[in-house]
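Quick one: structure tokens for this chain, please?
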Amino acid sequence: MHLIALIAGMICCMAVALDAFQTIILPRRPAGRLRITRAFFILTWAPWRALAPRIGNMKTREQAYSVYGPLSLLLLLLVWALLLLVGFALFFFAMGSPFADAMHATQASWFARFETDLYVSGTTLFTLGLGDVVPRALPARALIITESGVGLGLVALVIGYVPVLYQAFSRREVSVALLDARAGSPPTSTELLRRHAFEGGDKALTVLLVEWERWSAEILESHISYPILCYYRSQHDNQSWLSALVAVLDSCALLISIMEGTPARQAQLTFAMARHALIDLGHVFHQEANAKRAEAQDRLPEAEFARLCEVLGDIGMRMCGDPASANRLRTIRVLYEPHAIALSEYLRMPLPTWIPEPSAKDQWKTIARLRSEAEAVLQGGVVSDHASAVRLHDLEH
């Protein structure tokens, strides 16, 4: 029995050490399917995403999804601590429980002795050092010193790990929030292009795509190293990092395949980086099979494509009018849409539509009308006080 306890203790401690190293310290995609972190997310996220849709209220349901990310971080750290505690307790048990314990005599049952081992391991790992149970052998004393060092190291890792996560989360969400004014909420490619249909808009759109090329590279670096960040949801229910990324990919696909203008070159660079991040994140969560099945889904049917061309034509966007434009767009969509759909279904984050739904309270339209009126005045036009008052009332409400 002592040999079995020794082997089991080694498995527990080595598994935690390897998993913590890959999850926290190693700055690249964790390798291997038999990992504690992967098993933890499989056992917790699957029932969580199965139960959350049963919540009728949308806001409450989104709140339930948003709780999972931070809660899973705490639970994962707790799982590591418990496995270390049990692992060192098994080491003590393999030594024959060499402790002087007033509560249990030397001839106590193996269960009582293992209870003492667990108690000693817990007080040592969490550096309590009560001293009511004293080791009687030199190897046990050495092991206690080792475990106390591991406990301090675990605390240091937690102190260093959590701020890194939240700094990466904050950087990610700043760009997602900024996209609200540029592409609507939730963001769509059509709205992004529509809001850049002004004189000099090509340059502004190119700058935006440069920013999102860098954002995609940061996502690729941070979320591959710390996949738990993918479960962290945005502050607002109608925003998410995945919908923002797909909206930018949709915009790049339009600029590359059917639009004319200078942003097309930068769109190719942004598309390549954003697609790279999307596919690699799908590999982290092993969504290859789901992405293959998602190839049959179509986010932009022919009727919707015709309406999209009509919307873009109404805002004065220059488009390639050849019949093959739809085929070019379909070809480029296949490169990323199945992976986006697979991640959307796994993370329960809805993807953006191509054309925004009409909104009764579109603040952007109200602001744009006010600006148009101001420009009309500057150019010698006349705007009635009543019309301005109506626009101001719309903006306030």
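The longest helix spans residues 138-183.
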